[in-house]
């Protein structure tokens, strides 16, 4: 048969078809665009303002968190037994008190590392003793005005402000402060100590907060060239201010709403003044932005509308031409898109794996099941009944400036280490970069192979050391933590490996060491912030098994290679008590009897004199809190279950009852509602609704006077045919047959 080219559409025909279809679509889009354009003008303004308020909310939340950290830090310092005992010293510069002063200065210095907002922390006592992290100690009257001065205040005024009356969580507005010839603006947080000693306080702890860090948060809301922003306390006193204009900031009379905006004309300039209020502190956050800056997006929408019409026409013509001449191009694009998608997915999986390992090593998981779910999803081969962390530090580069040559040598060393471990360790091993100089391997193995894994590690480290030393002149230190029986505790092995590395610093024989074979001589108790957070999350989840396991882990970490003095034991007991107090406050609703039990255990925990009795008391306390959580959750689940069943009972006869409707009315997403409904009732929503309707239909079938069509309608089915199919599927017979069998 001869090919007839007339049977094929011509280029002009194809072009015309696409153009005609496109013009129809373009006319529709133009009409919709005109309508949307008119609505967008008002919407854009509201959206821009809401975006600004949201930024202000984020700045508020972050600053509130930082200030709460400062308050928590000061509370911890005020409870420090060393500081409490030193406040009663009458002659602080005699004998062994110098050592106490140095220890206090060291405690104060930790605040600067834990919170970048903190510039300095100092303790000032009524005996004129001033202790800071940078100057250790000095007579305040001698150094004030020379090494330390706040604004234009003379010494007596400064002393009166600090010690003239009892201060409780007081913030002083930002002011210039000179410390060691370094002048900057700071916000001062003052707390008299001891806390609660209104008439007998001994001094005050002051934290100097860097105003520049606060300004960075405020700068996210206002433009660089104009506007201003400030933070004021509940009394209207401005604590910190950022002003990009030549005009002074104007206080805003805040309406009753805690969040919103107001339009004001200031010196002939129309301004949008956005504000939000902190629920915890009552502080007011205000940002004033020129009106023109806020609504400039309206002009942008107008231009975009015109450009979109033009671009749409041009793109439509190009698409018509492209489709008529290159029919195979979509296939090529599809293949190319598939390959790129595969590449992107692989890169994403690498990122997910790295994130998983980092979270695992930092103790970011609370349940073994959660770890197993993520591990299986990303295909991470770490199967065994024992796990161990091996940390390697590449020596000799800590003091060098970062340079391409240095990074190249570090990368070379890491490649050699990684490849050697991969070739010589016969067990599932995962590699993770800690920083430029440190890497860690997680090794999974069977418990019966414990000696074998040790030999493999020793042999591998020996091989790596020889390769790096002889060929590249690079030395390494290797620390191996204790094995653990599950992945959730690998963070302990990781911490132990890190401690081993620290213990090897400066030793001539530094090479490989195992945690269980070294004497760390640690006297500080072990209860880091991430462990406290994990403990609180487990209690809030009511997971008694995991709480017991974590407390046992804490007990072990405070007995192995640690010799706690009585002062440290007391401090640990107060730390545990403080965690329990936070949990008690979080669990607002509980019975009076339970509250009394908690209070009794809170008092008992600080009376313990030995570590075993302390953790026994802590176990009773935290397990009691778990039981309170579980009781509350049980009540909540029962109330929710009753609410769900009552809703279905009241509305099942309505044919438009759906998963979307019931979840919306109960304030849940469809996915979450389905999960909770199935968990509480045992059937899916669809199954339960059908069962309820079928039960109703069976009851109506017993009355011969009611037709099947009416039964369908009264049972919640708008279409009788749908009812017939559902009934037969549920009972195996039709409604008519079922009625005849009654």
From TrEMBL:
Protein origin, superkingdom: Bacteria
Coiled coil (residue ranges): none
Transmembrane segments: 15-37, 305-325
InterPro entries named among the record's database cross-references: CdaR_GGDEF, Homeodomain-like_sf, HTH_AraC, HTH_AraC-typ_CS, Tscrpt_reg_AraC-type_HTH
Residue ranges annotated for the HTH araC/xylS-type domain, each copy included: 642-741
Keyword Amino-acid biosynthesis on entry: no
Translocase listed as a keyword: no
Pfam families, per the entry: GGDEF_2, HTH_18
Protein name: Helix-turn-helix domain-containing protein
């Amino acid at each position: 048969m001869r090919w007839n080219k007339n049977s094929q559409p011509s280029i002009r025909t194809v072009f015309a078809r696409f153009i005609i279809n496109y013009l129809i679509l373009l006319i529709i889009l133009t009409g919709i665009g005109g309508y949307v354009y008119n609505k967008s003008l008002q919407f854009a303004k509201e959206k821009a303002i809401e975006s600004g308020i949201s930024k202000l909310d984020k700045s508020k939340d972050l600053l509130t968190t930082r200030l709460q950290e400062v308050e928590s830090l000061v509370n911890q310092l005020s409870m420090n037994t060393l500081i409490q005992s030193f406040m009663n010293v009458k002659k602080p510069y005699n004998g062994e008190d110098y050592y106490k002063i140095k220890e206090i200065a060291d405690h104060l210095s930790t605040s600067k590392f834990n919170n970048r907002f903190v510039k300095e922390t100092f303790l000032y006592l009524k005996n004129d003793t001033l202790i800071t992290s940078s100057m250790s100690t000095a007579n305040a009257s001698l150094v004030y005005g020379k090494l330390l001065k706040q604004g234009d205040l003379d010494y007596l005024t400064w002393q009166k402000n600090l010690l003239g009356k009892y201060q409780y969580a007081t913030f002083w507005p930002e002011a210039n402060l000179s410390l060691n010839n370094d002048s900057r603006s700071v916000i001062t947080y003052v707390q008299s100590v001891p806390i609660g000693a209104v008439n007998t306080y001994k001094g005050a702890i002051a934290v100097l907060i860097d105003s520049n860090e606060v300004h960075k948060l405020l700068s996210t809301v206002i433009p660089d060239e104009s506007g201003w922003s400030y933070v004021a306390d509940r009394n209207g006193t401005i604590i910190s201010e950022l002003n990009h204009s030549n005009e002074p900031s104007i206080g805003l009379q805040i309406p009753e709403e805690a969040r919103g905006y107001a339009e004001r004309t200031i010196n002939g300039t129309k301004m949008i003044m956005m504000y939000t209020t902190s629920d915890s502190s009552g502080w007011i956050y205000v940002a004033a932005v020129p009106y023109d800056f806020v609504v400039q997006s309206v002009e942008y929408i107008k231009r975009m509308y015109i450009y979109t019409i033009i671009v749409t026409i041009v793109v439509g013509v190009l698409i018509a031409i492209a489709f008529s001449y290159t029919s195979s191009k979509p296939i090529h694009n599809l293949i190319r898109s598939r390959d790129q998608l595969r590449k992107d997915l692989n890169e994403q999986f690498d990122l997910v794996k790295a994130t998983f390992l980092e979270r695992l090593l930092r103790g970011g998981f609370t349940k073994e099941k959660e770890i197993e779910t993520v591990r299986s999803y990303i295909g991470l081969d770490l199967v065994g009944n024992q796990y161990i962390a091996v940390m390697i530090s590449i020596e000799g580069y800590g003091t060098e400036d970062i340079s391409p040559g240095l990074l190249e040598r570090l990368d070379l060393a890491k490649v050699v280490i990684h490849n050697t471990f991969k070739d010589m360790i016969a067990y599932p091993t995962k590699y993770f970069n800690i920083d430029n100089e440190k890497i860690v391997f997680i090794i999974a193995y069977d418990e019966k192979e414990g000696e074998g894994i040790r030999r493999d590690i020793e042999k591998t480290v020996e091989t790596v050391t020889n390769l790096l030393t002889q060929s590249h002149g690079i030395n390494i230190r290797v620390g191996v933590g204790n094995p653990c029986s599950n992945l959730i505790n690998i963070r302990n092995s990781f911490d132990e490996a890190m401690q081993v590395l620290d213990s090897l610093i400066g030793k001539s024989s530094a090479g490989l060491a195992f945690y269980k074979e070294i004497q760390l001589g640690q006297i500080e108790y072990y209860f880091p912030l991430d462990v406290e957070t994990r403990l609180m999350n487990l209690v809030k989840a009511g997971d008694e098994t995991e709480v017991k396991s974590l407390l046992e882990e804490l007990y072990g970490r405070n007995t192995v290679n640690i010799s706690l003095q009585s002062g440290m034991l007391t401090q640990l007991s107060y730390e545990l008590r403080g965690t329990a107090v936070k949990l008690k406050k979080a669990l607002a609703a509980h019975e009076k009897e339970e509250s009394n039990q908690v209070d009794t255990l809170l008092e008992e925990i600080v009376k313990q004199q030995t570590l075993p009795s302390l953790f026994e008391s802590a176990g009773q306390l935290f397990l009691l809190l778990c039981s309170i959580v579980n009781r509350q959750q049980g009540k909540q689940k029962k109330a929710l279950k009753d609410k769900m069943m009552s809703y279905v009972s009241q509305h099942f006869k309505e044919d438009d009852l759906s998963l979307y409707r019931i979840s919306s009315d109960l304030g849940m997403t469809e996915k979450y509602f389905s999960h909770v409904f199935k968990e509480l009732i045992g059937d899916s929503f669809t199954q339960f609704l059908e069962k309820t309707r079928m039960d109703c239909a069976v009851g109506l079938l017993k009355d011969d006077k009611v037709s099947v069509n009416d039964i369908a309608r009264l049972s919640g089915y708008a279409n009788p045919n749908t009812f017939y199919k559902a009934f037969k599927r549920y009972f195996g017979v039709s409604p008519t047959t079922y009625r005849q069998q009654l």
